[in-house]
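Field log, afternoon session.

UNIT: design team B
ACTIVITY: writing a sequence onto a fixed backbone
BACKBONE:
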């Protein structure tokens, strides 16, 4: 299973002039990568929509119609001939000119000599993958074409990140295309130190990663500072845990009780006499702290009109943004806690499958309540977030997560 860790890094060079040159080099790579990625996306869009480019010259259209008579059809409404183009019709029939190779050769012509070849090779793979996943939604009008700004990650392969090691002072260092870097782990609440140590020991496999510039606001001064981050990707092997694939742990996600679970086979049929459900967390326990944060947000909104202005919106609303961030972090922490407890219970009982009951119906009901003017559930509970975290943690220990559609159950289950 591949995970990504965000780690702040800096150029480890004592000489001021050399450090400045290294940073300027990274900025040049960033600008070149951004320009190449945006042009590559345009080419991908053209490849998928070439059949709609009807302003080609008539002789070009006639030649194509003669060479490909099977692509010519009669439009039922207008009665005129129409020609259907495919991507393969406009790309030269030569070796190394596939859809993905075309954009790679484009990037190579733009970036060769400016950026290491490893970077634009990984960039082409990343752009092609994103375009392939989103192009259907773009055609349907559900999303817009991907565009890249100055915070675009600069990708590189695992072999490019060299000489990663831990020094005697306890800090981690590595070299990327000849530029020395050091990691800033801080309090390390995400346990990044242990992950890097396992990568060095070979327990975890290093994968293609990236570096990117991001602006962060100082909470005390309100000033922006551009920092450099490493998005470290590694492949974590699944733990060898003995579970029975036929044994199922049934779980229900609800705002009244974050998770209700049972190992009884009859639980699939609904709430029946003799079927015992246990709960993880309660509504009061989950909402107590969140309601406090929301009350603080409302106080900030009221008092913001008394804050001295003149320094921009972010300066005026920094306290409000801080409480929004606290609420977001609190929710993430709680969802991680609940999902971890459920997966641990499944492992303890030897269940190879976690079945989420009546999940889609509850999500649809929450959306309907939100449209009716009752947004409490949708605003204060995250069905999808909890479901994603359960699947993520279950996959790490080899447990399968499924959703049961046909399930009859009461609206709410009372605590035992």
């Amino acid at each position: 299973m591949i995970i990504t860790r965000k780690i702040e890094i800096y150029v480890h060079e004592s000489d001021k002039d050399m450090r400045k040159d290294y940073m300027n080099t990274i900025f040049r790579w960033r600008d070149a990568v951004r320009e190449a990625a945006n042009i590559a996306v345009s080419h991908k869009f053209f490849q998928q929509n070439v059949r709609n480019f009807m302003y080609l010259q008539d002789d070009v259209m006639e030649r194509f119609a003669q060479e490909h008579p099977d692509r010519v059809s009669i439009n039922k409404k207008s009665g005129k001939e129409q020609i259907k183009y495919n991507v393969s019709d406009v790309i030269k029939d030569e070796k190394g000119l596939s859809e993905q190779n075309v954009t790679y050769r484009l990037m190579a012509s733009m970036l060769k000599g400016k950026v290491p070849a490893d970077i634009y090779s990984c960039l082409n793979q990343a752009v092609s993958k994103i375009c392939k996943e989103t192009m259907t939604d773009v055609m349907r009008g559900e999303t817009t074409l991907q565009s890249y700004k100055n915070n675009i990650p600069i990708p590189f392969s695992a072999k490019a990140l060299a000489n990663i090691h831990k020094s005697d002072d306890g800090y981690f260092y590595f070299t990327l295309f000849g530029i020395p870097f050091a990691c800033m782990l801080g309090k390390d609440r995400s346990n990044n130190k242990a992950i890097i140590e396992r990568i060095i020991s070979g327990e975890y496999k290093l994968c293609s990663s990236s570096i990117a510039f991001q602006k962060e606001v100082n909470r005390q001064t309100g000033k922006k500072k551009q920092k450099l981050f490493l998005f470290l990707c590694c492949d974590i092997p699944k733990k060898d845990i003995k579970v029975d694939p036929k044994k199922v742990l049934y779980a229900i996600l609800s705002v009244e009780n974050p998770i209700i679970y049972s190992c009884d086979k009859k639980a699939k049929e609904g709430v029946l006499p003799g079927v015992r459900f246990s709960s993880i967390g309660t509504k009061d326990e989950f909402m107590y702290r969140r309601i406090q944060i929301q009350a603080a947000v409302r106080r900030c909104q009221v008092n913001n009109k008394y804050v001295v202005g003149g320094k921009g919106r972010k300066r005026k609303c920094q306290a409000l943004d801080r409480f929004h961030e606290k609420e977001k972090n609190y929710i993430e922490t709680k969802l991680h806690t609940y999902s971890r407890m459920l997966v641990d219970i499944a492992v303890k009982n030897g269940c190879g499958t976690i079945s989420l009951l009546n999940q889609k119906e509850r999500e649809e009901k929450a959306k309907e309540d939100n449209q009716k003017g009752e947004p409490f559930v949708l605003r204060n509970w995250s069905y999808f977030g909890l479901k994603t975290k359960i699947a993520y943690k279950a996959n790490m220990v080899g447990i399968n997560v499924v959703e049961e559609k046909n399930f009859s159950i009461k609206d709410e289950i009372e605590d035992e």
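LOG NOTE: The mean pLDDT is 80.
NEXT ACTIVITY: expression trials, pending approval
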